[in-house]
Amino acid sequence: MKTIICTLSLVFALSLSNAQTTSTSNSKVSISYSSDEPGKGNYRVNISISNTEDMYTLKASFPSSKTGKLKQFLKDHLTPEMTKNGTTSTWKYNTKGETGYVVKLKRGKLNVFMDKEFVSADLVEDLIDMFSDIKEIIKQ
Questions:
Q1: Where is the signal peptide (predicted)?
Q2: What is the end-to-end Cα distance of the chain in Å, rounded?
Q3: Does 11 map to a domain?
Q4: Are 59 and 47 in contact (CB under 8 A)?
Q5: CB half-sphere exposure, 78, CA atoms < 13 A
Q6: Residues 93-135: pLDDT tens digits?
């Protein structure tokens, strides 16, 4: 009887180990820089990135003096359709009636939201590479 129970337990355990599993890839990164070097001026940069299977978000705060440089970088790399509402510049990419990404820039702040379901895999990769360059621009 013990042999039957052990055999059944082993078969049950093996069947569980072969069950399908799904893995998700989620990552969150926060980066902070600050400077208090004499003669260079004090500044603080905070960048927070969340990258999941379905979405990519980036939030950054940085010295207001870097806003113009960052705006030009975004103009050079994003869709030419930019709207301006007060001090906020917004780039949107829509496909099939859905929003693929929204990038909002105002003095000293950047917010990015990308829904990967509505953006091609190549564009997702290109945008993530581009957004990784942002930290160098606002840190300089």
A1: 1-19
A2: 74
A3: no
A4: yes
A5: 26
A6: 998 889 999 999 999 999 999 999 999 999 999 999 998 888 7
Give domain status of residue 7, yes or no: no
80, amino acid identity: P
109: in domain: yes
Q: Which pLDDT score, from 0 to 100, does residue 81 have?
A: 84
Residue 133's Cβ-side half-sphere holds a number of Cα atoms within 13 Å equal to: 11
**128 CA to centre of own chain:** 7
Based on the structure, what is the number of domains in the chain?
1
Element counts in the chain: helices (H) and strands (E): 3, 7
Does pTM top 0.85 for this prediction? no
Contact 94, 123 (CB under 8 A): no
Using a 10 angstrom Cβ sphere, with 0-12 exposed, 13-18 middle and 19 or more buried, the burial of residue 9 is exposed
Alpha carbon distance 40, 54 (integer Å): 40
